[in-house]
Design brief:
Layout lengths: L7 E6 L11 E16 L7 H12 L2 E11 L5 H19 L6 E8 L6 H14 L5 H7 L8 E9 L2 E10 L12 E6 L2 E2 L1 H13 L5 E2 L9 E6 L6 E2 L2 H24 L7 E9 L2 H13 L1 H8 L6 H9 L10 E4 L2 E5 L2 E2 L4 H9 L3 E7 L5 E8 L3 H8 L4
Parallel strand pairs: 3-4, 7-10, 8-11, 9-17, 12-16
Antiparallel strand pairs: 1-2, 2-3, 2-10, 5-6, 6-7, 12-17, 13-14, 13-16, 14-15
Helix pairs in contact: 1-2, 2-3, 5-6, 7-9
Length: 394
């Protein structure tokens, strides 16, 4: 059952922006201006909505709504794309009564395609009519592209002043190797939180959830992870204990959503839970984790349920991390496969067969070089992934 934060309304409509017969335009609105946090892509080609959000957050940390569309990323669209982005906010403001400078945009879909502004204009009356009548599930469906299912998590938590509620949703299945967040993710919270502390919490949660997943090694032009905390519960997260509790809950929500992305990877059938320990530092640990998680040879072996552990060692070796190969050990599914520069004796194919047939496959590499650790969730690479992306614009 979805836990609903107080003071939020949802809208989702069929705007035919690219897709037919499904919702593709949505809005989340707070009844009052809310503390706003945002983390965005580090891709040099940043989409118009990302640039617009960055500029708006520099001016103010209080906003009232998210406006989201699927089908067109509005990325690599130049000045026209920026003008169109701002005009959609004006349209939504006129239709819903939410001030344009309090509406934060987010887009997902094909790069380089300009908005059809006539379709946006035609959809606005329906969007306004839907606001307050749609459910969060409707919004999470409207922002999907190649996702096979919506991704939504909600919960409540007791702070010192009472109960607060949080709801998070995201979309993403391909072009996933974030260096900040995921393709699109949104959080609604009814706690009263200082905007700067809310931003700190968001950055920490991004680093420890969405920043620890990969599907295909591509960082999107549109990565966006934003949250509104409107205080509608009447409970203020002010003490350090309350803020830690709120952070812990948001982290748990974000990690659940991040797992859903990898689990729903385009064509994906496996989730590799990669853990690197004993690295010289965290930078080296992450180099090894990402090399393993991004390796096409490792990913195809996962798809084939093939315990070809040599591919894992190979990826660690070219990762750029400094370590002594003779000190490295490898465990798959808790079974020691390799240590001290040599394979462990035994019929490893037979031992690992049940492990490789599971959806979740734990892979632990211990480098023996220091205290550095890193973790990463990675999908496999399948024939269906190639088929989906060969025909993505069709």
């Amino acid at each position: 059952m979805t836990v609903m934060p107080k003071g939020f309304r949802f809208a989702a409509v069929e705007a035919n922006l690219k897709y037919s017969g499904r919702t593709d335009l949505a809005m989340i609105a707070s009844d009052t201006p809310a503390s706003t946090a945002g983390v965005f892509t580090t891709n040099k080609f940043q989409a118009a909505p990302v640039l617009q959000c960055r500029a708006m957050l520099e001016r103010s940390r209080k906003h009232s709504a998210f406006l989201m569309n699927a089908g067109s990323a509005n990325a690599c669209t130049g000045d026209e794309g920026m003008r169109n982005c701002r005009e959609t906010l004006n349209m939504a403001a006129e239709a819903t009564g939410v001030p344009a400078d309090e509406i934060l945009p987010a887009s997902t879909g094909v790069i380089g395609m300009q908005f059809d502004m006539d379709k946006w204009r035609a959809a606005m009356p329906a969007l306004a009519e839907s606001l307050g009548k749609s459910a969060p599930e409707d919004v999470s469906e409207a922002i999907m592209t190649t996702d096979t299912r919506p991704k939504l998590v909600s919960t409540s938590v007791e702070l010192s002043g009472g109960e607060v509620r949080l709801l998070g949703m995201c979309k993403g299945a391909g072009m996933i190797s974030p260096n900040m967040a995921t393709l699109l993710a949104f959080v609604c919270c009814d706690a009263d939180v200082d905007p700067l502390r809310w931003q700190e919490i968001f950055e920490y949660c991004a680093d420890n959830s969405f920043n620890r997943v990969t599907v295909d090694g591509d960082t999107s032009t549109n990565d966006t992870y934003m949250g509104l905390a409107n205080g509608a519960s009447g409970v203020r997260a002010e003490t350090e204990e309350d803020l830690r509790t709120l952070c812990d809950v948001l982290l748990r929500i974000s990690q659940e959503l991040a797992y859903m992305i990898v689990e729903d990877a385009e064509g994906g059938t496996k989730v590799a839970r990669i853990e690197v320990k004993g690295a010289r530092d965290e930078i080296d640990a992450e180099l090894v984790a990402r090399a393993i998680g991004a390796s096409p040879l490792v990913k195809t072996a996962l798809f084939g349920c093939d315990a070809n552990w040599g591919r894992i060692m190979c990826a660690a070796g070219y990762s750029g991390a400094e370590f002594d190969p003779g000190a490295v050990s490898l465990d798959i599914g808790g079974i020691r496969i390799f240590e001290k520069g040599m394979p462990v004796p035994g019929d490893m194919d037979a031992l690992l067969e049940p492990v490789m047939n599971e959806v979740d496959i734990p892979i632990t590499v211990t480098l023996g070089s220091g205290p550095g650790t890193a973790s990463l969730l990675a999908s496999d690479l399948t024939k269906e992934y190639v088929e989906i992306n060969a025909d993505y614009r069709s």
